[in-house]
Design a protein that fits this description.
Blueprint (H helix, E strand, L loop, with lengths): L5 E6 L5 H13 L3 E6 L9 H8 L17 H8 L2 E7 L1 H8 L6 H7 L4 E6 L3 H5 L1 H12 L3 E2 L3 E4 L5 E5 L3 H12 L10 E6 L4 E2 L5 E2 L6 H12 L3 E6 L11 E4 L3 H12 L4 E4 L6 E3 L18 E3 L3 H8 L4 E8 L3 H11 L4 E6 L11 E2 L1 E5 L4 E3 L3 E2 H17 L9 E2 L1
Parallel strand pairs: 1-2, 1-3, 3-4, 4-5, 8-11, 8-13, 11-12, 13-16, 16-17, 20-22
Antiparallel strand pairs: 6-7, 9-10, 14-15, 17-19, 18-21, 19-20
Helix pairs in contact: 1-2, 1-8, 3-5, 4-7, 9-13
Bound molecules: cytidine-5'-monophosphate.
Cytidine-5'-monophosphate binds next to α11 and β16.
């Protein structure tokens, strides 16, 4: 995990500096490139030569003195590092760092560094608890600096209390954790989302369409990307910009959508079918534009395949989620679809309710689970509802399809 990571250790003038030799040694053994910079006071406790031997790299103390290896040492050191560890960090250092004072190589380097900083304070208990020190720590924390709390115990000054530098193993473990790849809820999972409305041609110019904006499905796709999934978004008609970091497939008709969905179905972990797929298409679309002549025009429609129902028949371990946009008897119709299409859950909404349905950015939905449990959500943005849907898909995929036990009102 730490292999080839560039770690810069700043050692300030505390008695615990000797423990940091062990930290440097562990980091080096774990494969990290370690460089050390010290304050002058720190060199009173540990010789730079010790760190130099341990890390195999020159140790930097003076701002202008020992810059033989680097042209502008503080900038070069800051550029080199993926992480800066300050250990032990004295009260003086905390005060300077909190206020942007740069009066030696170490504090100047910190100011030139914009990535992760981990500070391990170590000092006498009273100095640590002094409101000035606590205020400085609060400033640093608020800036996103990570603080490794000192341990309690016997201090070098003879008192027992808080202020001891944590043991090298703990400092090492904290650094490992910082570099651990973040495991997101859908990492390693592949999710197929459909969105928008299908377009069924009447002739080369006209079509039968619907009012779907695609917004719900696009938000679901974005949410799945944010949760770490590899996402395929198959979209019918929509004015929205395709979201980033996913495979985007544009289709027009229900038949094209069916083909695209079936092509990827075997390789995905879940399908969320939020597209408004036309139930019927024109049996024989005209090859040329239909001319205005007769007083009436009859279009013969044939039923489109129900894609989700087909997936319900084909599915093995995939999680299948459907949508039911209704105008009446919502729960009853939604439940019927859930069973017919062999879904894991269905998101139902009354498209006639204010703040729900087509075109608007909010939705009022219920989730009906296989087995009949219902979750009723209040009016929320489609982005928030998308997140709820993705959380539930992730929980099904990560918990071997355990469904919630009871009816829940969110
Ligand atoms: O039966 P109904 O069309 O109302 O079901 C809605 C759900 O089924 C939605 O998830 C929609 O995407 C999906 N559907 C489908 N193929 C169709 C019609 C709807 O997959 N032909």
């Amino acid at each position: 995990m730490l292999d080839k990571k560039n770690i810069l250790i700043g050692v300030t003038g505390g008695i615990a500096a000797y423990k940091v030799v062990e930290v440097a040694s562990r980091l080096k053994k774990a494969g990290a490139n370690v460089r050390v910079m010290m304050t002058r006071a720190a060199t009173e406790f540990v010789s730079p030569r010790t760190f130099q031997e341990i890390t195999g790299n020159a140790v930097f103390v003076e701002m202008f003195g020992d810059a033989a290896h680097f042209h502008v040492a503080h900038v070069a050191l800051a550029d080199f590092a993926d992480l800066v560890l300050i250990a032990p960090a004295t009260a003086n250092f905390l005060a300077k760092a909190a206020h942007g004072i740069a009066d030696d190589l170490l504090t100047t380097t910190i100011l030139a560094f914009d990535k992760e900083i981990l500070i391990a304070p170590s000092m006498n208990t009273k100095m640590y608890e002094n409101p000035a020190t606590q205020a400085n720590l609060a400033i640093l924390k608020a800036r996103g600096v990570k603080i490794l709390e000192p341990a309690s115990g016997n201090l070098a000054c003879g008192v027992v209390g808080k202020g001891r530098l944590p043991e090298p193993e703990e400092i090492f473990a904290t650094i490992e954790k910082i570099f651990a790849p973040s495991t997101k809820a859908l990492s390693g999972k592949k999710i197929l989302v459909t969105a928008g409305g299908t377009v069924e041609a009447i002739d080369p110019v006209r079509y039968i369409g619907n009012r779907s904006s695609g917004r719900m499905g696009y938000e679901i796709a974005k949410s799945a990307v944010n949760a770490g999934a590899e996402v395929i978004l198959i979209s019918g008609k929509s004015e929205l910009e395709p979201p980033n970091d996913l495979k985007f497939i544009k289709i027009e008709s229900a038949l094209q959508m069916r083909e695209a969905v079936l092509k990827d179905f075997d390789s995905v972990d879940a399908v969320i079918m939020s597209a408004a797929v036309a139930d019927y298409r024109v049996k024989n679309p005209a090859a040329q534009k239909i001319k205005k002549s007769a007083d009436t025009l009859t279009l013969e429609l044939v039923k489109n395949p129900d894609i989700l129902k087909e997936l319900g028949g084909l599915k093995n371990s995939q999680v299948l989620v459907g949508f039911a946009a209704e105008t009446q008897n919502i729960l009853e119709y939604a439940n019927k679809k859930l069973v017919e299409k062999n879904l894991d859950f269905i998101v139902a909404n009354d498209v006639t309710a204010e703040g729900a349905g087509f075109g608007v950015s909010t939705n009022i939905a219920s989730i009906i689970w296989r087995g009949g449990n219902v979750e009723n959500f209040p009016k929320m943005s489609k982005a928030d509802l998308a997140e709820k849907i993705i959380e539930r898909v992730a929980s099904l995929l990560n918990n071997d399809k355990k469904f919630p036990a009871a009816n829940v009102n969110q």
